[in-house]
Amino acid sequence: MAPSVTHVSGTVTGDVEVRFTDSGVAVCRFRLTQTPTQWDAAARQWRDGTPIRYVCTAWRHLARNATESLTDGVSVLVTGRITEIRDNAVYLSVDDLGISLRQRIAYTETSLPSPAAAAPISPTASVASVAAPAAAQPAGAGPGSRSAGQTGGPPAWWEQRRTVGWHHPAARTPADAVSPNGGP
């Protein structure tokens, strides 16, 4: 009989342990706790049930990525196969793993915010100096047009308006508002 695949959402408890086999294959192990909720009809409210403890094992690239990504207290979603139930814990061989976005934002290597997003803005910076990066557009890239070679992205005016409105909300006037049809 083939082991059944299960999906678990829970919280990582403790540190992720990583080891390497003699042939160099990465293996990681981490503990996961799932606390199911149950409806208490008498009290008319949800109550936490008995926590279910999991010991999860991942191999190869998944093990390396899990070791770098997971820390104590992170909520995760795990797909895996139950390999054993003993010592009041369910043992899972992890096939796939993801960080739950219910309570946090997760960035991937390709979706990291630009360094400019964290750059401090001085309170005396003028609107023109904040919008300067958007002004370095190719000639003929006026409002509503797209930059050369840009397909599917926002129009050129979007970056200027977004930047100006974000850093200086008090400087906006009703004339700066975007019309309902999406244009300036």
Order of helices and strands: EEEEEHEEHHH
Task: Count helical runs.
Answer: 4
The coarse silhouette is: extended
Unreliable parts: 130-150, 165-180
Helix percent band: 10-25%
Separation of the first and last Cα atoms: 63 Å
Question: Biggest β-sheet, characterized?
Answer: 5 strands, mixed, barrel
| Strand content range | 25-35%
Kindly provide the radius of gyration, computed on alpha-carbon positions and rounded to a whole number of angstroms.
25 Å
Structural class: alpha+beta
Number of strands: 7
Mean pLDDT: 76
**Spatial arrangement of strands, main beta sheet:** 1-2-5-7-6
Any overview of this molecule?
With 184 residues, this protein is an alpha+beta fold. Helices cover 16% and strands 35% of the residues. The protein contains four helices and seven strands; from the N terminus they run βββββαββααα. A five-stranded mixed beta barrel has the order 1-2-5-7-6. The chain is extended, with a radius of gyration of 25 Å.
